[in-house]
Amino acid sequence: MIDLEKTPTIRADIELVRKLQSGDFQPIEVLMDRYGRDLIHYLASILNNREKAEDVFQETWSRVLQSIRRFDLKQPFGPWLFRIARNLAYDELRKEKRSRSRFEEPREEKPIFEPSTESLFDRRLLERDLARELLARLEPMYREILWLRFFKEKSYEEIADYCRLPLGTVKTRLRRALERAGEVWEKAVGEQSHGRK
Amino acid sequence: MAESNLHGCQSHRDQLIELLLEGKQIPGPLADHLAACESCRSFSAALNGLQPAFARLDLYTPGLKYRTLQRLEGQAESMDRGFLSVMVLLGLLSLLLWFAIPLLVLTRLLDYWLVQPGFSLLLSLLLLTSLGFLISCLAFLALAHGKGAEQLRGRMNDLLEGFHG
To answer: Predicted ipTM?
Structure first.
């Protein structure tokens, strides 16, 4: 459990949120500067699409404004904000899946993490290129948890708070994400070596 | 060749995943294996490269912030309008209530009311509508010049001017 009194950022957030709740909208910019960068990257890690991530980013702040009066000041603002964003991002993915199943014409979109068309062995890959390919091929929920753990270096407890998941599920999902990354990597390697035979 | 390596190296890869989860250093025997096995080295590099891959993202641009603030400004205005609509609705409802109460009371008390109901209704309506209109005007003025609305408009204008500038 996060101790609100011991965290200066959380205390500062509470002040800003209190102002927002009283009808002063000035703090929204401060909160956006504080959380915006992480938020858009978090959304990008789930959606793997810049335009969609930006749409959901805007929608998230809009929802914040709509529901700020209902926000419980005993809770930290960050996880609340990220949960709103997370719900919207997964709604977006579900919408996308539905429209795909209805054979609708897909929008022309450029993913953020894009698999390379070049062979894994035919070029000298840098570490980051390999990782980028892994991310391109991973499922959103695994990209999301890897981002929280290995980029934001969140503890298991914090991830559980952000994703509203039991601690055990966080650990299992993280392990599964890395295993899945391994599987994806092996599959890619297998495809390449098969192609070379 | 790659296929046989994949099967033979599975335990090393499981160990790599375990170490990454626990945030521990690679021990000697595994390090020796990585030095000798190109495939596992590449696998390790891919997992360890996840962080740099995320770090290269830079999607929080001034443009995104500006567009978001612009949208929020519009939303705040529509929230104001929504609030005004609710106020007007409430005003009308209270007006009806005001109208209904004297109508009921006067109907019971005054004979005149019963003799000339049409005229009495019109008179009550005019009187109460004027009163309701006056109160609505005062409420509107209070909202339009309220501290919160003023602050919001001023701040949003500053922000937009800053970006245009």
So the answer is: 0.74
